[in-house]
Write a structure and sequence with these properties.
This protein has 200 residues and is mainly α. It contains six helices and no strands. The protein has a single domain, classed as Cytochrome c oxidase, subunit III, four-helix bundle (Four Helix Bundle (Hemerythrin (Met), subunit A)). α1 packs parallel to α6, α3 packs antiparallel against α4 and α4 runs antiparallel to α5. Its main location: membrane. It is an enzyme of class 7 (translocase).
């Protein structure tokens, strides 16, 4: 009789992500607290400078990167690190191709966020310009740092895959826990996007 114990790496990652959830809950609480005490007209004037269309496109790219990440996980669970056909035959891609695409999409999101920050600073919205600017940059900035952390994790994952003589359970587990983190970052951003850009 065998006992199937949960993977300690997966359990540890989930526990850590739960603590990260508390961190973002604090940021949301800060955002709503500042919003409740700031004059409505002043808040509306600042929020009106946001580019909703651009942010929606950037958000779509990040959300779709969760799909490509999961495709990479399924390839890793098949122990398929690399593609078995043409680069154009997406259905035959391995983990490395899917995770590289995910990395590029995440990098695109960060580039878009930097561009948005530059545009807002040009419009007069900076971290020190108002209470709105402070909460906007703190909430989106901390999330951006988490995305950068995910990009570093993808580099580690791909490096481990290329260095492995034989792609096995250790490499697949690395892909799975990296995907947990990436999906978490995506879900947090969907909530942030809804609160900051849609809930006026």
């Amino acid at each position: 009789m065998s006992v199937n114990r949960p993977n300690p790496v997966s359990v540890g990652t989930i526990v850590w992500l739960a603590s990260e959830l508390m961190f973002f809950a604090g940021l949301f609480a800060m955002y709503f607290t500042v919003r409740s005490v700031m004059p409505e007209a002043e808040w509306a004037a600042e929020a009106g400078k946001l580019n909703l269309t651009f942010a929606a496109i950037n958000t779509t790219v990040l959300v779709l990167s969760s799909v490509t990440c999961q495709m990479g996980v399924w390839a890793a669970e098949r122990f398929q690190p690399v593609r078995t056909g043409s680069i154009l035959a997406v259905n035959r891609w391995g983990m490395n191709e899917w995770m590289t695409l995910t990395y590029l999409m995440g990098a695109f999101f960060i580039g878009g966020q930097i561009f948005e920050y530059a545009e807002l600073v040009h419009e007069g919205v900076s971290i020190s310009s108002s209470a709105y600017g402070s909460v906007f940059y703190l909430t989106t900035g901390f999330h951006g740092l988490h995305v950068v952390g995910g990009l570093i994790a993808f580099l580690f994952l791909l490096g481990r895959s290329f260095a492995a003589r034989r792609f096995g359970h250790h490499e697949a587990t690395t892909a799975i826990v990296t995907s947990y983190y990436w999906h978490f970052v995506d879900v947090v951003w969907i909530a942030l996007f809804a609160v900051i850009y849609l809930l006026r």
